[in-house]
Amino acid sequence: MQNGLRILGHPLHVTILHVPLGLLSTAFIFDIIGLAQGVSIWWTIALANIILGLIVAVPTVVAGFVDYVTTVPGDKPERLATIHMLVNLGAMALFAFSILSRGGLAPPDTLRAAITTALDIGGAVLLGIGGWYGGELVLRHNIGHRAPDEP
């Protein structure tokens, strides 16, 4: 069964998710460097990573949602896919709140810096958990795999 969005036969969601994942999951590293060094460029890099990561996450979310409604058969895979989706949307929300907590390009005061970094770490942890559920869908339930006779 070849459903969902595909590009050259490969599931689009799986193909494009790496860019937002990389941008978002590294933001907290730049925040920690910024905290340790007190240099604002690291905060700016983290902010840019989050903004770009959220922008490029939009097509990933759309492709994942199309896959969710067209290729997830059965109760257990559907439950795992729902958890995968909700956890990753929760991560996006934490990163969006991180943008708001920054209050601009300059490093925030100590309390806001700690809150911002905690939001970024929380978002990265949720991305890891959501990724694990995505792996369960692909590796244990064959979601997104083609049958050998499909083009």
List keywords for this structure.
151 residues; mainly alpha; Four Helix Bundle (Hemerythrin (Met), subunit A); two-stranded antiparallel ribbon; 6 helices; 76% helix
Could you explain how this protein is built, in words?
The chain is an all-alpha fold and 151 residues long. It has one domain: Four Helix Bundle (Hemerythrin (Met), subunit A) (Up-down Bundle), CATH 1.20.120. It is 76% helix and 3% strand. The protein contains six helices and two strands, in the order E-E-H-H-H-H-H-H. Strands 1-2 form a two-stranded antiparallel ribbon. The termini are close together.
Share in β-strands: under 5%
List the quaternary state of the chains.
Answer: single chain
By DSSP, the count of extended strands is 2
Shape assignment: elongated
User: Mind telling me which CATH architecture this is?
Assistant: Up-down Bundle
Instruction: Find the structural class using helix and strand composition.
Output: mainly alpha
Overall residue-averaged pLDDT value: 87
Helix count equals: 6
Query: Radius of gyration over alpha carbons?
Result: 17 Å
Domain count: 1
Strand order of the largest sheet: 1-2
The CATH topology is given as Four Helix Bundle (Hemerythrin (Met), subunit A)
What is the class in the CATH system? Mainly Alpha
Low-confidence stretches: none
> The biggest beta sheet, please?
2 strands, antiparallel
